[in-house]
Every structure is written in structure tokens, then in C-alpha cells.
From TrEMBL:
<dbReference type="GO" id="GO:0005576">
    <property type="term" value="C:extracellular region"/>
</dbReference>
<keyword id="KW-0732">Signal</keyword>
<dbReference type="InterPro" id="IPR005193">
    <property type="entry name" value="GH62_arabinosidase"/>
</dbReference>
<dbReference type="GO" id="GO:0046556">
    <property type="term" value="F:alpha-L-arabinofuranosidase activity"/>
</dbReference>
<dbReference type="GO" id="GO:0046373">
    <property type="term" value="P:L-arabinose metabolic process"/>
</dbReference>
<comment type="similarity">
    <text>Belongs to the glycosyl hydrolase 62 family.</text>
</comment>
<keyword id="KW-0964">Secreted</keyword>
<keyword id="KW-0378">Hydrolase</keyword>
<comment type="function">
    <text>Alpha-L-arabinofuranosidase involved in the hydrolysis of xylan, a major structural heterogeneous polysaccharide found in plant biomass representing the second most abundant polysaccharide in the biosphere, after cellulose.</text>
</comment>
<dbReference type="InterPro" id="IPR023296">
    <property type="entry name" value="Glyco_hydro_beta-prop_sf"/>
</dbReference>
<keyword id="KW-0326">Glycosidase</keyword>
<protein>
    <recommendedName>
        <fullName>Alpha-L-arabinofuranosidase</fullName>
        <ecNumber>3.2.1.55</ecNumber>
    </recommendedName>
</protein>
<dbReference type="GO" id="GO:0045493">
    <property type="term" value="P:xylan catabolic process"/>
</dbReference>
<dbReference type="Pfam" id="PF03664">
    <property type="entry name" value="Glyco_hydro_62"/>
</dbReference>
Length: 338
């Protein structure tokens, strides 16, 4: 496995055009909460990279009392559910509300960054991804909630500032986030200043119906100057009320503008309409997750096809308060020609 500190730009590659229709197959439930003293109800929001021949996963743990973070690693997906959990409140990340992690290696500083929400847009750093005790105490990108986001959180109804995501190009680093009210925000700072100097947010994309642009964005570089944006949405109508799926867009610039690619419930990037379950259909929702990355640096490079996506899914019969929902993790594998 190539080391990112030796090969800091692993994502330079040639690609073909992206398809406009996608198909996937899903695994059975891959990872569930442990039956331990933590009493976790759901495991959610996974971020995953392959480094030193191992899969490294960071995720949210959810229960009625709130959220925190967990780390685990394994060498084969068949081992994923048996691997021990390290609850990150044992590190300097600490206790309290922490959720929705994203991990990447910031090559200019030779540090791993863990981005997450704690009521603000937060981050911790570590020089060794395999040492979960090594994460630093939380710092934030902003001194408080930026005014534009604060305004968005109450229009058209009460929203939540969630799901921070960082991606960099050769000059700048960009921070995306959501207000759960139909708006995707973007801030930026220079590569040299990162993580300091984040600008006031602007609206990167918005929809009048909040469910059509809800949360959990991923942005990736797919080569040849093309960027891929994924956003989780909530289905409408009798056939999809409450069912989660992903739309996609492309752009030649992280700052946009963004052109729809597979961007409807009927033709999603991934969702109930295009995911097959060879075994048991254990979820209708394809929710918050990440493409499995072998290029681990801040440019978030992926190939143009052949993807695997680690996601959260939910028993359709589950009926409890939101924090207590029994989310599990599954793995999508892209199928078909691309």
C-alpha cells in the first residue's frame, strides 16, 4: 500500500465520462452496534479509507441520550462486524455531542484530519490513523454559527447545522455543510492557511423543498478536472415517504456551478430504485455514508466507476424516536458498465 506522506497526490488519473444511470447491489447488514455497556442503538454516518492494507472506519454512535464517535479497522469486509470498537470519547475528542465524521490525510502537514459536528464545524488531528487514542481535542473552523447559516436554520422551519465535509484542490480547501432546510453551504480557505481562515459561507446549492436537498453531502475528485457531488434526499409521495436516497451533480470547479447527473428519486445516484439485494432486503433507505477511498489525501480522488459505498440502512418496520432508531451499516457495490 502506498503511503500518503510519500505519495501525497495519489488521485491524479485519467478518467472517462461518468454514466448517467447507476446500478448497485447491497450486502446484508455488515456492521451493527455492539451489545455492550454503551447501549448504542444505531451506528451511522461512516467515513472509510484504505490505508496500510486495512480499512479504517469512523462512524457516529446514536442512542436516546445523544451521539458520539467510534473507530474500528479490519482487513476484509467479512471481518467487519467482529472487529472491536474504540469509542472516541476515550481520546481527547472527549464526551458530548460529536457526530458525522469525515477522515482524510492532509499531505501538506502530514496529519490525519477528522472533521465532525459538535454544534459547530469541528476537527481533530492525529499523526497515526491506526492510533485512535491519538486524536487531539476538538477545535472549530468558526467562532460560532455563521450568520447566513443561522438565518437558514429557521427558514422555512427549524433546521440543524449538520454534516461537514472538506475537500481541497491545488490552491484551496472547501468546507461544505447543510442546514436541513434545503441548502448546501460552502466556505473556503487557502491550502496554506488550512484549517485557519475559513471564509463566510455562501449557498452552493438549494431547493425550495428541503427534502430534495437534505444532508450528508460527499464531494469527490474523479479526475480530468471533474468533481462529483452527492447529497442525501428524502423521498416524496406514497411510494417513497421518508425513504432516503442520493442525488448527484458534477462540476469542473469545487465552487460550482453544479450540473445534475442522476438527480431524481426515479433515477437516483443510489436509492431503492437502483439498489438490488441478492439476499434479504433489510433496508429501503440508502442513507449517509462514503465511497471507499484508496486515495486518502485531501483531494479525495476516486476513479470514474467501480465504486463501493459504505452506507447506513434501517429496518423499514423500525418505529421509535429518531436517536434510538436501529441503524446498521451495509456496503453497496456498483454494477453494470461504466
Amino acid at each position: 500500500m502506498l503511503r500518503p506522506d510519500v505519495y501525497p497526490s495519489l488521485n491524479t488519473r485519467q478518467t472517462t465520462s461518468l454514466p448517467t444511470n447507476f446500478t448497485w447491489t447491497s450486502s446484508d447488514i455488515l456492521v451493527s452496534p455492539k451489545n455492550d455497556s454503551r447501549g448504542v442503538a444505531g451506528i451511522k454516518d461512516p467515513s472509510i479509507v484504505i490505508y496500510n492494507d486495512a480499512y479504517h472506519v469512523f462512524a457516529s454512535t446514536a442512542k436516546a441520550e445523544g451521539y458520539n464517535l467510534v473507530y474500528f479497522n479490519f482487513t476484509d469486509f467479512s471481518e467487519a462486524n467482529a472487529t472491536p470498537f474504540y469509542y472516541l470519547d476515550q481520546s481527547a475528542i472527549g464526551t458530548g455531542y460529536r457526530a458525522a465524521p469525515q477522515v482524510f490525510f492532509f499531505a501538506p502537514q502530514k496529519l490525519w484530519y477528522l472533521i465532525y459536528q459538535n454544534g459547530n464545524a469541528a476537527y481533530s488531528t492525529n499523526d497515526d490513523i491506526s492510533n485512535p487514542a491519538g486524536w487531539t481535542a476538538p477545535k472549530t473552523f468558526y467562532s460560532g454559527t455563521p450568520p447566513l447559516i443561522e438565518k437558514g436554520l429557521i427558514t422555512p422551519q427549524q433546521g440543524y447545522w449538520v454534516d461537514m465535509w472538506v475537500i481541497c484542490d491545488d490552491a484551496d480547501c472547501h468546507l461544505f455543510s447543510h442546514d436541513d432546510n434545503g441548502r448546501l453551504y460552502r466556505s473556503q480557505t487557502t491550502l496554506a492557511q488550512f484549517p485557519e481562515g475559513m471564509s463566510d459561507p455562501v449557498i452552493a446549492l438549494e431547493e425550495p423543498r428541503k427534502e430534495d436537498l437534505f444532508e450528508a453531502s460527499n464531494v469527490y475528485s474523479v479526475g480530468n478536472g471533474t468533481y462529483l457531488l452527492l447529497v442525501e434526499c428524502i423521498g416524496a409521495g406514497e411510494s417513497g415517504g421518508g425513504v432516503r436516497y442520493f442525488k448527484s451533480w458534477t462540476s469542473s470547479n469545487i465552487a460550482g456551478p453544479w450540473t445534475p447527473l442522476a438527480a431524481s428519486q426515479e433515477n437516483p445516484f443510489m436509492g431503492e430504485a437502483n439498489v438490488a439485494f441478492p439476499s434479504t432486503k433489510w433496508t429501503k433507505s440508502i442513507s449517509h455514508g462514503e465511497i471507499v477511498r484508496t486515495d486518502v489525501d485531501q483531494k479525495l480522488g476516486i476513479g470514474a466507476c467501480g465504486w463501493k459505498y459504505l452506507y447506513q440502512g434501517l429496518d423499514p418496520a423500525a418505529n421509535t424516536d429518531y436517536n434510538s432508531l436501529p441503524w446498521n451499516l451495509g456496503l453497496l457495490t456498483q454494477t453494470g458498465e461504466c
